[in-house]
Amino acid sequence: MIHTKFLDMLGTKYPIIQAGMGPYSTTDLCIAVAKEGAIGLISTIGMAGGVSIATPESAKEIFGSGKTKEIIKNVIQHVYDNLKEYPDARFGVNIPVAGDFNFAAKKLVKGVIEICTKKPEIKEKLVMIVTSAGDPLPWAIDATSKGAKKQYIPIKEELSHVTWCHVCPNVRGSLRAEKAGVDIIIASGREGGAHCAWRDVSSMVLLPEVVKSVKTPVVAAGGFSDGVSLAAALAMGAVGVQMGTRFIATQESDFEQMWKEAIVRRAETDTLVARGLFGPMRFLRNPMSLKVVDETISGASDLFRGIQCPSNSAIMKLELDGLTKLLEENEDDSIILGGVVTGRIHSIPTVKELLDSIMKEAEEIITNLPRNVLK
Q1: How far apart are CA 363 and CA 277, in angstroms?
Q2: Which of 198, 229, 255 corresponds to the end of one domain?
Q3: Can you tell me the mean pLDDT for 293-311?
Q4: CA-to-CA separations, 29 to 3, 82, 142, 262, 375, in angstroms, rounded
Q5: Could you tell me if 52 and 103 lie in one domain?
Q6: Does residue 365 belong to any structural domain of this protein?
Q7: Number of structural domains, the chain?
Q8: Is 163 helix (H, G, I), strand (E, B) or coil?
Q9: Other C-beta atoms lying within 10 Å of the C-beta of residue 175
Q10: 181 in the same domain as 36
Q11: How far apart are CA 288 and CA 283, in angstroms?
Q12: What is the dihedral sign for C-alpha 328, 331, 337, 341?
């Protein structure tokens, strides 16, 4: 049986995190993953202005409506209620901390703090906060000088029971996350779907370099989907993997059947990167994503020089229109997020079937490796 430091830190059965993925809350997926022994994450990107525009009607009763802080509390309560009879189930919350999202990030963190304070039993299940798409340092305990505490919330100070993870696209970001005092660094190569970096650093390059550069445990993300890639991540020094696109294409996930089938049909060459609502994002290639690329190209040189360029109104309209088309399951006119690993996804299993196959394959590879490569 594979056992890494990840299991000791989180108390899970498997060293696997289901990534936070918008525009949905991934509530059903989070519950399914946690029940089977990995970490399920609630996504919050769609909670910024109340219920997401792409939230199915069936989910609005769970979410409630109105204030962002109340929505996250409702969703956490719903997930906890569905997991409290499962002793080993663990879940967390993914909160983007990009500058353009800070107005919502603070409300979301406050919501997590309030429900954990009011209902301490939830702490037994809610064991992880994953921040992403921004700078973790202002959210650290040591960032309270010069008035920063008034602007940000020191996560580890207010939620001392959680394992704080931060998603990093490069070594420099990983060193900054370590300075912030995060418990786990999620090193995410550019292969990943949705939010990614403009500069092209693959997981094969990024992961071993981050592991070498920091003392903090590292989880691998971006291009991981099966036992082969889990075994490779462990060989490069990771303590586990985070998977997003692979979990979309499961029977329990909150995503449309059209989206799941689109992932299964795409080859590894069928994704592209363009400017998103905040920062670059990777999409499945279709007519709508090509329109976003056209709007992105005009500012491409500034983007690749590292200059921060917020989305223009044309891009924002295209993406919002594309998200609303998801509810109609209109593949050509929808914005469909996904990673390069779509080319390695050929089925839509249950979460249990997926996790069982990943662990079985990884254990077989690791067990057989010595006799296959050593004399």
Answers
A1: 40
A2: 255
A3: 62
A4: 24, 12, 35, 18, 44
A5: yes
A6: no
A7: 2
A8: strand
A9: 16
A10: yes
A11: 10
A12: positive
Backbone angles phi, psi at 149, to 5 degrees: -65, -30
Same domain, 82 and 178: yes
Which domain, by its residues, includes 49?
8-255
pTM attached to this predicted model = 0.91
Task: Decide: 73 and 115 in contact? Cβ < 8 Å.
Answer: yes
Among residues 320, 240, 225, the alpha carbon closest in space to that of 277 is found at 320
Parallel, antiparallel or unpaired: strands 271-275 and 184-188: unpaired
One domain for residues 59 and 19: yes
pLDDT tens digits, one per residue of 261-290: 999 999 999 999 988 776 788 999 999 889
| 35 and 115 both lie in a single domain | yes
Which residue, among 275, 311, 130, has the nearest Cα to 197 in the 3D structure?
275
- Using alpha carbons only, give the angle 238, 239, 244 rounded to the nearest 5 degrees: 80
- Do residue 156 and residue 52 come from a single domain? yes
Cβ proximity of 14 and 359 under 8 Å:
yes
Beta strands in 33-153 (DSSP E): 39-43, 90-96, 126-132
Same domain, 282 and 246: no
The residue whose two tokens read 């990673």 is 339
Residue 229 pLDDT greater than 90, yes or no: yes
Tokens of 94: 């993914």
Q: Are 172 and 199 in contact (CB under 8 A)?
A: no
Please indicate, yes or no, if residue 17 is contained in any of the structural domains.
yes
Q: Same domain, yes or no, for 284 and 233?
A: no
- DSSP, collapsed to helix, strand or coil, labels residue 321 as helix
* CB 91, CB 75: distance < 8 Å: no
Indicate the angle between helix axes 68-83 and 27-35, nearest 10 degrees.
Answer: 30
